[in-house]
Amino acid sequence: MIASLTGRVARIDLDSLVLDVGGVGYLVRTTPQALSSTRHGAELLLHTELVVREDSMTLFGFPHPEEAETFRIVQSVSGIGPRTALAVLAVLDPEELRRAVAEQDARAITRTPGIGPKVANRMLLELGGKLPAPSGSAAGSGESPVAPAAGVDGDVVEALVGLGWPEKGAVSAVEAVRSEDDAVPEAADLLRRALRRLGGSR
Q1: DSSP character string of 60-110
Q2: Which of 57, 73, 150, 166 is the most buried (most CB within 10 A)?
Q3: What is the pTM of this model?
Q4: Is there a domain that residue 144 lies in?
Q5: What is the pLDDT along the chain (202 residues), one digit of tens a residue?
Q6: At 45, is the secondary structure helix, strand, or coil?
Q7: Do 74 and 115 fall within a single domain?
Q8: What is the CATH classification number for the domain harbouring 118?
Q9: Structural domain of residue 195, as residue ranges?
């Protein structure tokens, strides 16, 4: 079992990064928030969860232990796998999810692509008592976006479509994020903002 990894960021993709640990590169799937808050060559500690399937082994990682714990707990819900659990954490941080469960706010959970009212209500039912009580101390990240590489908008649209959003809506969300901020966010930050905009339109 790999509980955590510490190394240098060797590559950053839209939904994952490669962490160089002693010369070995680990591909780790993580949230847009984590991707947008690091940079190539940075030293990074990730709390990890190895998901083993018959035909694959996938490593998921998070900068904060509460994110990793929440990721594990969300997967305890019937029908929720690691990809959906990661999508939930891409839209709701652990504090926001705890608050949604405490307040029985299914609408907040349906902001996650692929989760409708039925699944959201099941999550509220099955997560009750499993998550800590909300602290009410959620804070913004204060991240500073940087200019993306050419063609990044298309990559983000493709990632959104892969998460279940229609292409037209994905394009509109990316364009809306671009228009509301003079600074051009990098791919991971653009994906996170587009997800929040799409979730809020449900």
Answers
A1: EEESSHHHHHHHHHHTTSTT--HHHHHHHHHHS-HHHHHHHHHTT-HHHHT
A2: 73
A3: 0.68
A4: no
A5: 789 999 999 999 989 999 999 999 999 999 999 998 999 999 999 999 999 988 889 999 999 999 999 999 999 999 999 999 999 999 999 999 999 999 999 999 999 988 999 999 999 999 988 998 887 434 333 443 333 333 667 788 888 877 777 777 888 888 888 887 656 567 788 888 888 888 765 4
A6: strand
A7: yes
A8: 1.10.150.20
A9: 152-200
> Residue 48's closest CA among 100, 101, 7?
7
Decide: 5 and 28 in contact? Cβ < 8 Å. Answer: yes
Domains contained in the chain, number: 3
Evaluate whether 87 touches 163 at the Cβ level (below 8 Å): yes
- Report yes or no on 113 lying in a domain: yes
Backbone angles phi, psi at 28, to 5 degrees: -125, 125
